Automatic annotation (TrEMBL):
Keywords: Auxin signaling pathway, Membrane, Transmembrane, Transmembrane helix, Transport. The chain crosses the membrane at residues 15-33, 45-62, 68-90, 97-120, 132-152, 203-221, 233-252, 264-286, 324-343. Its main location: membrane. It is found in: Endomembrane system; Membrane. It comes from Brassica napus (Rape). This is Auxin efflux carrier component. One of its GO terms (molecular function) is auxin efflux transmembrane transporter activity. Belongs to the auxin efflux carrier (TC 2.A.69.1) family. It is a multi-pass membrane protein. The keyword Phosphoprotein does not apply. The keyword RNA-binding does not apply. May act as a component of the auxin efflux carrier. GO terms for biological process: auxin export across the plasma membrane; auxin polar transport; auxin-activated signaling pathway.
């Protein structure tokens, strides 16, 4: 049963994020501290330094030998369902778009597990639920965010996956005509993509983190103080600088709700309905039940991952939609998640 004190703990975890957001917004909109070029530099700082070190920090302290693999399997099945639906839509629908499929995947699947999920899961189901949420977050960092980076690099490398991308409808009725350059071979594109991924710290940070987790759990090693201190000094700034950067992005836009009401509503539907529905199917398919089933569905309905916005901004793909999803998702997530909690009490 969630008490008023539990709700306060969740709010206590979320409010500092909005403080960082407001400071970032004010630094550009009110106080004119940063230029546009400086704002781009801040995004790159977050993307290539604070977030990778944040990833190393939380993945290095999990126990990979004591994970709920059926829970992980349910997560994989849910993502496969979403990818299959989006791929079918992109290929066969007249309105299909591979670029929008990438963004829709982010909206449906990538969650803010550590900031919102941990205190909420503990309030709802105790420490066992926290362990599951952390496992989900680690798997997200290692697999799904790496997959997202792969397709974003593939898109940046100039691989024209679908000629329908040439005509994309915008809010105001205009047509955005994509510029299609000289086609590269599949081999050339993949060479560029793998090279970019190999030099992207967001890829090998999670590998380093989980590698240390295996070593420390197997042989009971503790990370040397010098190493841990070196990681912590930047990783502690990860979430705060990401929210600060989002505030900067909002300040550079003409409108506060930069993607419009219809896309905002679509983002909320994908986040709070489509994602949990796919997770419910995956969970039932592998035989989850009881509190594990409830946690699986609730963690899929957590608000949008801040990292997904940072990547969208860096790669120039619908950053307006992702920023709005993060902001509004955290605003409406608490009542939505409490409603899920109440409804799931009737499930065995």
């Amino acid at each position: 049963m969630i008490t008023g004190e539990d709700v306060y703990k969740v709010i206590e975890a979320m409010v500092p994020l909005y403080v960082a957001l407001i400071l970032g917004y004010g630094s550009v909109k009110w106080w004119h501290i940063f230029t546009r070029d400086q704002c781009d530099a801040i995004n790159r700082l977050v993307c290539y330094f604070t977030l990778p070190l944040f990833t190393i920090e939380f993945t290095a302290h999990v126990d990979p030998f004591n994970m709920n693999y059926r829970f992980i399997a349910a997560d994989i099945i849910s993502k496969v369902i979403i990818v299959a639906v989006l791929a079918f839509w992109a290929k066969y629908s007249n309105n299909g778009s591979y670029c929008w499929s990438i963004t829709s995947f982010s909206l449906c699947t990538l969650t803010n597990s550590l900031v919102v999920g941990v205190p909420l899961a503990k309030a709802m189901y105790g420490q066992a639920a926290v362990d599951l949420v952390v496992q989900s977050s680690v798997f997200q960092a290692i697999v799904w965010l790496t997959l997202l980076l792969f397709v974003l690099e593939l898109r940046r490398a100039g691989f024209n996956t679908n000629s329908k991308e040439e005509n994309i409808n915008i809010e105001d009725g205009r047509k955005d005509i994509a510029v299609v350059g000289e086609q590269k071979s599949f081999v050339e594109v993949m060479s560029v993509v793998w090279l970019k991924l190999a030099t992207n710290p967001n890829c090998y940070s999670c590998i380093l983190g989980i590698a240390w987790a295996f070593i420390s759990s197997r042989w009971h090693f503790e990370m040397p103080g010098i190493m841990e201190g070196s990681i912590l000094i930047m990783s502690k700034a990860g979430t705060g600088t990401a929210m600060f950067n989002m505030g900067i992005f909002m300040a550079l836009q003409e409108k506060f709700i930069v993607c419009g009401a219809s896309l905002t509503a679509l983002g909320m539907v994908l986040k709070f309905i489509a994602g949990p529905a796919a997770m419910a199917i995956g969970s039932i398919a592998v035989g989850l039940h009881g509190d594990v089933l409830r946690v699986a569905i609730i963690q899929a309905a957590l608000p949008q991952s801040i990292t997904s916005f940072i990547f969208a901004k860096e790669y120039g793909l619908h950053a307006d939609v992702l920023s709005t999803a993060v902001i509004f998702g955290m605003l409406v997530s608490l009542p939505v998640l409490v409603a899920y909690y109440a409804a799931l009490e009737f499930i065995y």
